[in-house]
Amino acid sequence: MEPSRVVQVEIHGQRYPIRSGLDAAYVAELAAYVHEKMRAAARESPAGDTLKIAVLAALNIADEYFRASDEVRHGHDTLAHRAGQLERMLDLALGLDQPQAAAR
Fold first, then answer.
1. CB distance 41 to 53 below 8 Å
2. What is the model's pLDDT at position 3?
3. Cα angle: 86, vertex 68, 53; to 5 degrees
4. What DSSP state is assigned to residue 21?
5. C-beta neighbour count of 102 within 10 angstroms
6. pLDDT digit of tens for each residue in the chain (104 aa)?
7. What angle do CA 77, 82, 88 make, to 5 degrees?
8. Partner residues linked to 62 by β-bridges
9. How much of the chain is helix, strand and coil, in % rounded to 5?
10. Cβ neighbours around 74 below 10 Å, total
11. Which of 15, 49, 58, 74 is deepest in the core (most CB within 10 A)?
């Protein structure tokens, strides 16, 4: 992380000073993402106030995060299962699947 500094961003018509040690371009990218989620939520709830729109945007972002986490977890589980299968195949090929025979 870089030294902390203030990055000015605009989200849903409001300017926010964000103090962060992250790269300023990355903070701006995050803000643009949140801004777009707020715009999408405002389209779905045109009469909503800013707080309601922000909550809807946060729920959408949380949903994306949870789905991505589930995909990563599923991918990890799949890789672990395949690695176990490969390990068993190697043990069979090398004759390591019979611990009693090795002990004799």
1. yes
2. 83
3. 175
4. S
5. 9
6. 668 999 999 999 999 999 999 999 999 999 999 999 999 999 998 888 999 999 999 999 999 999 999 999 999 999 999 999 999 999 999 988 765 544 54
7. 130
8. none
9. 70, 15, 20
10. 10
11. 58
Phi, psi for 3 (deg, rounded to 5): -60, 150
Q: Which residue has the tokens 């409001």?
A: 14
- Look at the chain and count its residues: 104
Query: What tokens does 79 get?
Result: 């890789």
Tokens at residue 82, please? 């395949």
- Amino acid making up residue 90: L
pTM for the full model?
0.71
Per-residue burial over 4-41, b if 16 or more Cβ lie within 10 Å, else e, is eeebebebbeeeeebebeeeeeebeebbeebbebbeeb
Helix/strand/coil for 26: helix
Spatial neighbors of 58 by CB under 8 A, at least 6 apart, are none
Show the tokens assigned to 58.
């946060």
